[in-house]
TrEMBL record:
Keywords: ATP-binding, Cell membrane, Ion transport, Iron, Iron transport, Membrane, Nucleotide-binding, Transport. This is Iron ABC transporter ATP-binding protein. It holds the Pfam family ABC_tran. The keyword Transport applies. InterPro entries: AAA+_ATPase, ABC_SmlMolc_Importer, ABC_transporter-like_ATP-bd, ABC_transporter-like_CS, ABC_transpr_FbpC, Mo/tungstate-bd_C_term_dom, P-loop_NTPase, Transp-assoc_OB_typ2. The keyword Metal-binding does not apply. GO terms for cellular component: ATP-binding cassette (ABC) transporter complex. It comes from the Bacteria. One of its GO terms (molecular function) is ATP binding. Residues 2-234 form the ABC transporter domain. CDD domains: ABC_Carb_Solutes_like (cd03259).
């Protein structure tokens, strides 16, 4: 459905997206995740047709819509967009907003399609309301209905939940995923919030400094990060020095890890990734000082420091009421 191949983009003398390749199949939801300024929005804008490509090409349903000397204008790409602020037309009702892109349909057909879209997003009966009479989440669903109404080939969403309450974002993301799956829509979203990305996407693309570091499902990205940047950006944990053993395992300050454990070649030698769930409090183990304790509902995450200053994180039960500066004993979880 969408193929981005070796695409580079930039502004003036600066390259902000470098040699990015990814593909989305029909009905797939993808998400570009990465820190502010890594080039996510620029890539999305290039797919929509608002930025020229400097190298590579972008294909939609097998047809090239952007290449170095070729650019199909945005209005001819058949792409729907949802923006950060929902951007509903304040002078139009919900019906008017959702029907905005359906001018080519007859009045009856338009009304039927608007009705169908409002049912899809769970807002039936609200067609006569004005945007200011809706909650943020409802406005977001109207924006989605409006973007999906003309049946675009591809839906692009740029931080669609950023103006919503943080506590609502993940549940709305799950809701929107269900709506998109029901509509069999192909969609690409941009976010810097990993919970949102994991709640929403079939595949997540982690970007850093204009490059796509990894494209994979949530489990692949979390459990087998392709680079240090992905390991640092996605989830929690610490990179800890390790030495290889003759048997191919990794020797760390906390013990031995299997050969396949995520590890990275760095300037400081090999480092392994220890997520909080890889490290446990034990009776006999390495001593570490507590720096911070964070409540996570079902457990605590302890931020710790080894005697040599190496930071490390551990998952602990709710009985572990340790405070700052307390000394605990830690070891590797048994199931690694
Ligand atoms: N119109 C522009 N002219 C010049 N530089 C730009 C322009 N738009 C973005 N940039 C720069 O390009 C880089 C990538 O920006 P982009 O908006 O794509 O990042 P992003 O990952 O979407 O960030 P955010 O999450 O903050 O929106 C940034 O360094 C930004 O300052």
């Amino acid at each position: 459905m969408l193929e981005v191949k070796n695409v580079s983009l930039g502004y003036g003398a600066t390259t902000v997206v470098q040699n990015v390749s990814l593909r989305l199949d029909q009905g797939e939801i993808g998400c570009l995740l990465g820190p502010s300024g890594c080039g996510k929005t620029t890539l999305l804008r290039a797919i929509a047709g608002f930025e020229p490509v400097r190298a590579g090409h972008i294909d939609l349903q097998g047809r090239t819509v952007a290449a170095v000397a070729q650019r199909v204008p945005p209005q001819h790409r058949d792409i729907g967009m949802v923006f950060q602020d929902h951007a509903l037309f304040p002078h139009l009702t919900v019906d008017g907003n959702v029907g905005f892109g359906l001018q080519q349909l007859s009045k009856t057909e338009r009304a039927a399609r608007v009705q169908e879209m409002l049912e899809l997003v769970g807002l039936q009966g609200m067609g006569q309301r004005w945007p200011h009479e809706l909650s943020g989440g409802q406005q977001q669903r109207v924006a989605l209905a409006r973007a999906l109404a003309p049946k675009p080939r591809l839906l692009l969403m740029d931080e669609p939940f950023s103006s919503l309450d943080t506590t609502m974002r993940e549940s709305i993301a799950r809701e929107v995923r269900a709506i998109l799956k029901h509509a069999k829509a192909t969609a690409l979203m941009v976010t810097h919030d990993q919970n949102e990305a994991f709640a929403m996407a079939d595949n997540v693309g982690v970007m850093s400094h204009g490059q796509l570091m990894q494209w994979g499902n949530a489990v692949q990205v979390y459990c087998a990060p392709a680079t240090q940047e992905v390991a640092r950006f996605v989830g929690e944990g610490a990179l800890v020095p390790a030495q290889s053993t003759p048997g191919g395992q990794w020797q760390t300050a906390l013990g031995m890890l299997p050969a396949g454990h995520p590890h990275f070649q760095t300037e400081q030698g090999v480092q392994v990734l220890l997520r909080p769930e890889h490290v446990r409090l034990v009776e006999q183990g390495v001593s570490a000082q507590v720096r911070e304790r964070t409540f996570r509902g079902s457990h605590f995450v302890l931020e710790l420091e080894l005697p040599d200053g190496q930071p490390i994180m551990a998952k602990a039960s709710l009985n572990a009421l340790y405070g700052s500066c307390d000394i605990v004993r830690i070891g590797l979880a048994a199931d690694l």
